[in-house]
Design a protein that fits this description.
The complex is a heterodimer of chains A (about 250) and B (about 70).
Chain A: H1 2-32, H2 35-63, H3 66-92, H4 101-112, H5 125-149, H6 156-177, H7 186-208, H8 219-238
Helix pairs in contact in A: 1-2, 1-4, 1-5, 1-6, 1-7, 2-5, 3-5, 3-7, 3-8, 5-6, 7-8
Chain B: H1 2-12, H2 17-35, H3 39-60, H4 62-65
Classes of the chains: A mainly alpha (about 250), B mainly alpha (about 70).
Chain lengths: ~250, ~70
């Protein structure tokens, strides 16, 4: 039950954040240029992601033996989880600017305004290409994370359920609001995703290497606790006042 | 090329320290299992893995902390 809820929550949070970033790009294109071209580019990327999911999912689940599969899935989750955790620690410590999809939306619009629009009735390949690339890159991460989380038979339903709910909610929010949400605590949400993915990654990698976790699935809660404590200690040791962070969000020397 | 670079960033992240650190953590843990495959492994293997992963995470923060 514990693993079921954590899997669903992890998939939902990770997908929501990735979808919000993709949505910011598509909305910026739709509002700056012609909406139809943004939708065409985004739909093409969604199709490519579905194709990737159809290829990667069965390949992982049916062709690879149980122990190597756990190791592979664990390592993949660690790659994503520790990277999200690293960035969140730097942001929470004031070493980078806080995550803001709305800021990315505004920057994307400013970038797009430099390109001239094609004549009416002609395809806008700039808009289509940027929408395709933006959605594809975020979508590939979603496909890989959800596939990794769903790699165990018991985890398929919660991982797909979490991803499905977040996909519908994010698309509905974009369709209703026509702009990214401004007040989401994105940095903290990304920190939580980093913790979830790193915890599952450690658990599966350990299992793949033959570790017998004390307490079974409940070890996931202990692992989350360890990562929260360690990451908070790292944030405290790196903490710096917010005015040391550059506007571009890059790390700056002390 | 920029799309490939972006895809590489999606999969491996912004720094190579983490993928290398994860590889080392998994490799060292697997080696420890081979060298000492007793009862110790069942309880200590997980702890070793967590400690090595935390070391990898801390190393990846190194550039920013200097």
């Amino acid at each position: 039950m514990m693993a079921y809820v954590l899997t669903m929550l992890g998939a939902a949070l990770a997908c929501t954040l990735e979808m919000l970033e993709a949505l910011a790009i598509v909305l910026a294109i739709a509002l700056t240029r012609r909406p139809r071209n943004a939708v065409v580019g985004a739909l093409a990327a969604v199709m490519a992601c579905l194709l990737l999911a159809a290829l990667v999912g069965p390949l992982l689940l049916d062709r690879i033996a149980r122990e190597p599969l756990r190791l592979l899935v664990g390592a993949a989750l660690l790659l994503f989880g520790l990277e999200w955790l690293r960035k969140a620690i730097l942001r929470l410590a004031g070493r980078r600017s806080r995550s803001s999809t709305f800021r990315e939306f505004v920057e994307e619009r400013e970038k797009l305004e430099r390109f001239s629009l094609p004549a009416p009735g002609r395809a806008d390949w700039v808009a289509r290409t940027i929408a395709f690339k933006g959605v594809l890159l975020e979508g590939v991460e979603v496909v890989l994370i959800v596939t990794a989380l769903a790699a165990h038979p018991w985890a398929r339903v919660p991982a797909l359920l979490g991803a499905g709910v977040s996909l519908v909610a994010t698309a509905a929010a974009g369709a209703l609001l026509h702009r990214p949400l401004r007040r989401l605590p994105e940095t903290h949400m990304k920190y939580a995703v980093g913790l979830f993915l790193t915890t599952f990654g450690t658990f599966f990698t350990g299992s793949g290497l033959g570790v017998r976790w004390p307490l079974g699935d409940a070890a996931l809660v202990v692992l989350i606790g360890v990562y929260v404590a360690a990451s908070q200690a790292m944030i405290a040791s790196l903490a710096r006042p917010p005015d040391h962070v550059s506007r571009a969000g890059e790390e700056v020397p002390a | 090329m920029s799309a490939l670079r972006a895809l590489q960033k999606v999969v491996f992240g912004e720094t190579w320290v983490l993928p290398i650190g994860i590889g080392l953590a998994v490799g060292i843990t697997a080696l420890a299992r081979t060298l000492e495959p007793g009862l110790w492994w069942q309880w200590g293997g997980g702890l070793l893995l967590v400690l090595l992963l935390l070391a990898a995470l801390w190393s990846s923060l190194g550039q920013a902390s200097r």
